Amino acid sequence: MYAKLMMVIFVTVVTGQQTVWPRTEDRFLCSPVVHVHNYLDKQEQGDQPEASQVDQLRDHLTRLQARIDSIQTNGTKQVQSRDILIAELQEQVKNLTTELSLLKQACRETCPETDEGLTCPSGYVQFQDSCFKFSTDRKTYSQARSTCQADGGHLSLVKDEATNTFLLSQMETIYASFNTPHIYVGATDQVQEGTYVWDDGTPVTGWAGWAPGQPADVPPAMTSDCAEWRLGSRGNGWVMDQCYFSQYYVCEVSATAA
């Protein structure tokens, strides 16, 4: 009889009869353990000499069923805990990404970028990833632009306050003996009157170092104007002037790997 019982267990389990149970009541009615219990009930009624073996087997199967239930319950709890943990981690990643973006923006406005491994041509001064050369001669805006282009660069693009502050500190030393020197900034409305663009063709938007009341047309009206610093005047802000005046200027090239 014991062999028959083992065969019933083997056939019931191996043939895959209801081995996954979505509901407790279905699991109780359809599980292999219940099938074996039913079989044992019938055998116990007609085969008393082996009743002790039947009881032992039934007890073992009961413990097995309890173990299966425990594993399924714990598995469900683990899946739920995992989903909660994943959601929490995703929220943390989102918050950290936002914080990092804000820190990068703040650093771009206040912190100098690393310049390790970069170098500038002779006669240029490095700031961040750019190199600047301050003229000792004076030229019109077009002539100054051509000179900078011949050096492989352009007139200075002062697109943020940190660069403007650095250039002013350099110019206040270089041109200290000059009386209110004028130095061209690489911005003009030569292409379209009233629309100011940098020397690289990009529009003058965002931060700008204009003096109060600037930019403003310089008489005669409807003529091209070019931006310049006037050291010692108007808080060293940018002002517009006629592009044909000969002024000092600042060339800019990109720093290169050493």
TrEMBL record:
Pfam families: Lectin_C. The keyword DNA-binding does not apply. It comes from the Eukaryota. Keywords: Coiled coil, Signal. SUPFAM superfamilies: C-type lectin-like. Residues 54-106 form a coiled coil. Residues 127-252 form the C-type lectin domain. InterPro entries: C-type_lectin-like (IPR001304), C-type_lectin-like/link_sf (IPR016186), Ca-Dep_Lectins_ImmuneDev (IPR050801), CTDL_fold (IPR016187). Gene3D superfamilies: Mannose-Binding Protein A, subunit A. The keyword rRNA processing does not apply. Residues 1-16 form the signal peptide. This is CD209 protein.
